[in-house]
What does this fold into?
Amino acid sequence: MHGYTGKSLFIDLSTEKYGIVKTPPSLIEEFIGGRGLGVALVAPHISYTWDSPEMPLVFSSGPLVGTASPTSGRISVVSRSPLTGTVLDCSVGGRFGTEMKRAGYDLIFIQGRARGWRFIEIRDKDIKILDAEPLRGMNVSELTATLGGGASTALIGRAGERLVRYAGIVFDGHYLAGRGGLGAVMGSKNLKGISIKGSSEVRVHDREELRKAYDEIMRLLRASPSLFGEFGLSEFGTAALVDLIHARRMEPTENFRRSYFPDSRRYSGYSLKRLFRPRKSGCRGCPILCKKVSQDGLVLPEFETVSHFGALLKNSDPESILQANRLCNDYGLDTISTASTIACHSEITGKWPAPDEILEYITRIGDRDGIGDALAEGSLRYATSKGSPHLSMSVKGLELPAYDPRGAYGMALAYATSNRGGCHLRAYPISYEILRKPVSVDRFSFEGKARMVKISEDMNAVVDSLTACKFVFFATSLEEYARCLSAVTGREFDVQGLLRTGERIWLLERSLNNLNGFNVKDDDLPERFFKEPGFEEGGIKIPPIKREDFLTALKRYYKIRGYSGEGKVDALRFPQGLSTLRTDH
It folds into this structure.
């Protein structure tokens, strides 16, 4: 098919050999690309621990990458999580995916562990595995300056080197594959970074039909208040959500003890724009440009980051939030897990940090220094070591993002059922519970939420496999992207067929988690949400979730999914992996 190069790069760091092999056509047929293709390739190795040389790290593009399809510059990174033990994928922006496709590869599959620190340099078919010992100990900003410009990069800072369980991989300086610890997987392989640059064009079957599909998507995007409206993401970035979530009284505050922070206006999207006068930036191929960069070149934080380094830590100082984001990007740390673990520690000790102390915690975590060594294990391991596992606000060990589930019951169910743990991006019920897209529903009811969550999970598995951006789907649907996919590949795709593929990806992930011991006991929320209200003032109440209602919704979800009562799926046929490396390169 068009849209694919048909070739994949296999690298064994233990032997420092590489090979260019055929991308398995059967996997393309069944899993599209991106997340789905990466999970399929990891599947035969899922019994290995995350730090085993046998555990692969997969960088996987989708068929739309490098084409004129809107938001087509993303890439998925897939392995097993050091933080949760689940199969893990992260969708990330920047231009790495585009350069990889132009270099001639659908994916890069890395196994083994180098004898010393190494760096991979890819220029089309010219591939070098270089000594990276001089780069050891560098954080991302220093490393980027040392490498210079031109190529796209995927790097780890000191957090990845020191195997912080929620270390991320930093693409092009500030786009993070952040959740779950993929930077630690990369660090366990003694791989400091990858740089890549390609010179080929991606083949498209019907450019005129793709142009028509592009025009229709752009028409819908421009008409969307959430994206291009006066207060939309294009204007204020994702921090535009601060005021909306604040008004709904569902902003996680003091480690989720409350769901309202009166001073959040100080770091709202409007306030950040007024304070830092940023310019617009964004991923390759994206018209929305939701990234904001200050006058002095600092990347402004996303919604999850401002909320967690703000309300979650009782901090209303916008400058410290900006610096916390900068430090996390430099060390290569997931901002959600970093702030959540500090908040967990603060509740256990009864002492909430001042703005400068927050920054000190980040550096200590990134360097595994002092208390930072314990916090680098994540909130669940840390809280358990202190005899208070219930104070870790996580699901399957992954810390919850910036939507209090007591204020949106679909989000509560989606957190619990997520294959990678506490994550808002597997289903994102906020779209219909708060943004009222595509339909408006009662956010304080589980009625109909099981089916909504299931459909959204399947859809987002497709979106991540196309490697498109989820924000686009505030305005468009899979119908428009099926048209793009058909134009690019020369094959006919429809919405129902894509959703069946999304379901196949989801069930494969679930079966891999089942093999590693995950079942119904892991599909749960911290007990705080069933016992404590989030907010009760002035006639406005955010009550605890009724556990009986939650369990009824979960049981209904299991039935729709076809899970057993223990949360297991029937054994699935494992996809065939890449060909064994047979090369002298």
Summary: Residues 47 and 516 are 7 Å apart (CA to CA). The chain has 24 helices and 18 strands.
